[in-house]
Protein: glycine oxidase
Organism: Actinokineospora globicatena
Amino acid sequence: MGHERAVVVVGGGVIGLSVAWAVADAGYSVRVVDPTPTRGASWLAGGMLAPVTESWPGEEHVLELGSSSLAAWPDFASRLTAAGGDPGLRLEGTLAVALDSADVGTLDVLAEFLRGLGREAQHRTARELRAMEPGIGPGVRSGLHVPGDLAVDNRALLTALHTACRRSGVEFVTASAREIHPGAVVLADESTVECAVVVLAAGAWSGRLHPALEPLVRPVKGEILRLHGRRGALPVPTRTIRAHVESRPVYLVPRADGELILGATQLEVGFDESVTAGAVRDLLRDAEQVLPGIAEYALTETAAGLRSGSPDNLPLIGEVAPGLLVATGHHRNGLLLAPVTADAVVALLRGEDLPDAVRAADPARFSGRDT
Amino acid sequence: MGHERAVVVVGGGVIGLSVAWAVADAGYSVRVVDPTPTRGASWLAGGMLAPVTESWPGEEHVLELGSSSLAAWPDFASRLTAAGGDPGLRLEGTLAVALDSADVGTLDVLAEFLRGLGREAQHRTARELRAMEPGIGPGVRSGLHVPGDLAVDNRALLTALHTACRRSGVEFVTASAREIHPGAVVLADESTVECAVVVLAAGAWSGRLHPALEPLVRPVKGEILRLHGRRGALPVPTRTIRAHVESRPVYLVPRADGELILGATQLEVGFDESVTAGAVRDLLRDAEQVLPGIAEYALTETAAGLRSGSPDNLPLIGEVAPGLLVATGHHRNGLLLAPVTADAVVALLRGEDLPDAVRAADPARFSGRDT
């Protein structure tokens, strides 16, 4: 295979692996550079595929892109199950619940916005919510049921992508990238990996690897806990449950094996990956407002990851120089946007047109260049 | 060396290792049976050597035994530093603080009890406490200063004991014991380790290994957190700080490197080693009442261990059958009582008399036998 078909993907998280798998299956020769593939921010994610409950007036582009990727998810999951393993897609849907009158107002705004866009979101009384999820606490006043917002087991997904990549011939270079140039990646040991095209998919670290990304990508710290149901405790819910408590967003995402992911803080504190005592206290306290029974669950993991924030909450997907594509800035939506991002990178490599929803994510939007 | 000098210690926690080291130095051939030496309940301990602030009217025997062991600690630590490594003994003392009027009353009872015994414990106003430890929160009303209650770095201690044991010729059998008989230990793989004397020092598991211990030793679960000071946060305190919050005891024990140990729950839930979300929430919330600045600290570890409870909070140190000694039931005081327990086992092997404080711990007290 000639050099012109050689692609190096920098970053082995959900975006890098999804891109590598798709690009390899499109007939390219692919190497992924990552010191610890699968173990980036996406390893610590909650797993929500929830463009609707994540949406907000003014972020229509984000909703449109997320919805188009969510539509691709069932097929993506079934292809991945065949190619690498079952990513644990869950179809039970999402509840967004309100604890006080401010929350009720927030959900009303969201419901109105969604109605205007023709999206499905049904108002539910407290009694109806408890009939759906008996563990919901007495402080919950009402909520929205969004059956189309799904969830996936992020770790099963990453493991399956890693397997699918290797089966499709992707090679892994387990090293840190130090610098990115069009057609070349300089590693920490000063050696260089050459190729026709580099795809920069290094999440929060992307800004450190290329000056064009430096002003556009910032780390957004998220602390997240993993709980597990225990004998004698209330069963874990079947749906994802989201809420705001004292303005802090909290979500609880169940896994098939009795695990319950509880996230997440959102902190603009640079490249700090400490889990603070205060964050854990807040997450537990807030989640107990929603599902009091979690006090009896086992706390099995506390961790912090760095999302890749962009200036407008849309990702950065496109060409920044000949021989250098980027796929980063996915913020809280990396898992959701993996299928559409992977397809977009293949189209860019082939010189094909992108769908409008993806063209909105072109990084050129920040440089005034004509896209 | 003849069979009559062969000793097997079952259990490689702080008691088992201290016993093994002392017995080996007394000229015996010693093997320690433990699948994971150093990694028992004492690995998860706070490190308090605090017989005075742990004491309570009616438990004079516990105070007397603890005080005699505390008196032995400086020499024990300096011998251990030479033989295996520095266990990080800290001499800054302990503050017991009160958050509400019930706590003030509790500390008054303790102070009165200690005064009657001639023990040193000085009343401190809130202002005096904050002059000693500036991080103490506004909810603290008053306290007791107990300069003689010390602390040790439990992990440095265990590592040093492990090294000292090996240097003194102790052999380690990294296997689980399944049954104990006088002069013989049956391992999980059915093989037998023979010796003249077995010392059962398996903490909470001791009751499962010999029927004589079964009614006397029970597991008492303790959840404990490890925090670490961070740049920009208030410095960690210099003294151990203890309190009760809503009747739950909480303690904060500083380490030299900026670590702060936060413990501990006390739960009678059998052999359950889960860390529950509710326990972590309570520990963090209670500790913040005492030291609000910990919210900014990193939470670096959550863990649960099983203390070995006895019916009267005194340990079980003595002979239960010819060829079978026990050294268990140390509950919250294993680190404190390690020196006196190790000396007692050597004395028992030599047929020497025990000090009165240790004779009170003879397990025969529960069988009505004459000691």
